[in-house]
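Good morning N.,

You mentioned wanting to compare the apo and holo forms, so I went ahead and generated the holo version with CU-O-CU linkage. This is what I fed in:
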Amino acid sequence: MKPLSRRNALALGVTGTAAVAAGAAGLHWSRTAGLSTGGGAALKEPVTLASRQGRLAVRLEAAPARIGIGGRTASVAAFNGSLPGPTLRLDPGDRLNITLVNALADPTNLHVHGLHVSPAGNGDNPFISVAPGQSYEYEFVLPPDHPPGTFWYHPHHHGMAAEQVAAGLYGAIIVPDPAPIPVSRERVLIVSDISLDGNGQIEQVSLPERMMGREGRTVLVNGQVRPALQAAPGERERWRLINACPARYLNLQLEGPRYQLLALDGRLLSTVSDTGQLLLAPGNRADVLVTPGEGRWTLRTDRYDRGGMAGMMMGGGTSAGTPSGLLSFDARGDPVPEPGPVPEPGPVPRLPVLRDLREEPVTGRRRLDFSMGTGQGMGPAAMGFTINGKEFDAGRVDETVSVGSVEEWTLSNSSPMDHPVHLHVWPMQIIQEGARDLTGPQWQDVVNIPANSEVKVLVAFDSFPGRTVFHCHILDHEDLGMMGVVEAR
Ligand code: C2O
Ligand code: CU
Ligand code: CU
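and this is what came out, ligand included:
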């Protein structure tokens, strides 16, 4: 067989490129690692819907959908028939109107993860329930000083969140930087995982799997099995990575190109630093600058031991997360679209100075303990997923805070499994992880609390009165009760 050039191989589509990729990098899918076919197709990005003159109105229909995944047709759920859903691009001060149409068989709702917007009324209100066949008019107003960043949206109906996100309901939200860092291109990379049976149906999840937090066997990027990215050597790209997996931690091995970490959970870091490894818990995002030399690489996620329920006889054991290739990155040949030398990307401009709550008076301190209680008797009913000993109750307010106050929260985990803790509306500044104090301000909205340890954060409860939630972002744990209610007055 005559060897194919890279450009010719691209034109052949899925099968052709997969074959070429397999030859080049040993792309083989074992039964356990994922689907036996697929991989190697050019990366697709969801359509972007951008605001104009301060407004964006979008209709999002959550519905069953048939979608090609890894060379088969899969029965999933999707927003507007696409997996991921459309990317929403907004500026500070914008008004976002979403008509959420529920064409699913179960109730649903919508959450804009990481946006600093009101949780009241028809805003980012996680207590809303939209029945099958119904629709709901959401309105989100970004304050004029809303920080730029990478955020995302997904359903948040208690009891349904893991299943609906696992089925394919998620999409990106981008608030661009006021002074963008010069790059050759920007990519949105939404990572998810899914388990499909031979008929392309999503597999049922057992109770022990839910208690561990379900991990799909096949890891997807923008709904694709190991897509292929092309760049020219020397081109700097900005990747906006989103971990939309219900429970899988991404332990990214950043090898080959130069990787510089720019932002976590959408918030710019105080300094840009080179990085070779990055852990993204469910819900986390990272903005990374990627500058390749000449070559071809696979971006891999490696094992990460997030603990387990060993000794609890639930059949769960530990979950180490199967290693998996996420995408292939090919930087050989000429720049696209015009050939010629790649201009030097130049130094990254100075990042804005971040607010540091350690310089502000703390008006309250509280402790939240995340645990997997061993209640009375045996079996699942005895395994409460609790915060301060309580399971979620939408009718109860667990913590009352004052609008404008700054509080120190100690997030402790007395269970043998990690819990990624997420607070809506207000980001958290991590000040102490285990015995380690942090120097520069580090802001996140999902903070991993490793098994049997604690993390201290500061929160500024700015701007918005209302009721919202904090919870474990292993969405099965949230559905099983590991969620509390906070009210700001
Ligand atoms: Cu991304 Cu309360 O969730
Ligand atoms: Cu959220
Ligand atoms: Cu958890």
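Residues 185-193+207-331 form a domain with the Immunoglobulin-like fold (CATH 2.60.40.420).

Happy to go through it together on a call whenever suits you.

Best,
F.
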